[in-house]
């Protein structure tokens, strides 16, 4: 399990990346960029940046969690440690997440794929926040999820009083931040479940 401090560092890092994109959007808005172009550019920036960040984040989360696991007395035994490495959780995570970034990013087309993921039980979505079901091994393309979030935000906005474009972009980035922290929680939960099963087996075998 991640410590409170580790989660805070992850959250702060994601937020700093989102703030960088927001500042770029604000600068472009002041320069007179049309709203439609500003939204398209923001989605492209977010998808390119956060797809890479997601890949690095998955590795970082695994490294933090495995460090805690391997510090336990149970895994000071070389055979038990070997059993942990044989789980190969990084490989399992690589099979779940596709980090490819398409040359052309269309958030409306991405929304259709997100609906397909939802129908397959691979993800869930509420209020623009996308959750990933780690127990369902349908691979998900991170870029599609990140782009699809914008379509969800725009749809939600269409159901209420029209907001200015900067507020829309802020909502989009907020939803990305919330989604990525949810993904961290999903990885953590999956990891903890797999290692708990392993620990029970090791104790049974040693008993």
Describe the structure.
The chain has helices at residues 4-30, 35-70, 78-87, 89-96, 107-120, 142-158, 165-206, and strands at 97-98, 123-126, 129-132, 140-141. 29% of the residues are buried. The strands form 2 sheets. It has a two-stranded parallel sheet. A two-stranded antiparallel ribbon has the order 2-3. Helices cover 74% and strands 6% of the residues. A hairpin with a 2-residue loop joins strand 2 (123-126) and strand 3. It is built from 7 helices and 4 strands. Helix 1 packs antiparallel against helix 2, helix 3 crosses helix 7 (165-206) and helix 5 packs across helix 6 (142-158). It is mostly helical. The model has no long low-confidence stretch (mean pLDDT 92).
Keywords:
two-stranded antiparallel ribbon, two-stranded parallel ribbon, mainly alpha, 7 helices, 207 residues
Weakly predicted, low-confidence segments: none
The share of residues in extended strands comes to 5-15%
User: Over all CA atoms, what is the radius of gyration?
Assistant: 19 Å
Structural class: mainly alpha
Q: What's the helix count?
A: 7
What string gives the helices and strands in order? HHHHEHEEEHH
Tell me the strand order in the biggest sheet.
Answer: 1-4
Whole-number average pLDDT?
A: 92
Number of strands: 4
Largest β sheet strand count, sense and barrel closure: 2 strands, parallel
Annotate the secondary structure layout:
Elements: H1 4-30, H2 35-70, H3 78-87, H4 89-96, E1 97-98, H5 107-120, E2 123-126, E3 129-132, E4 140-141, H6 142-158, H7 165-206
Parallel strand pairs: 1-4
Antiparallel strand pairs: 2-3
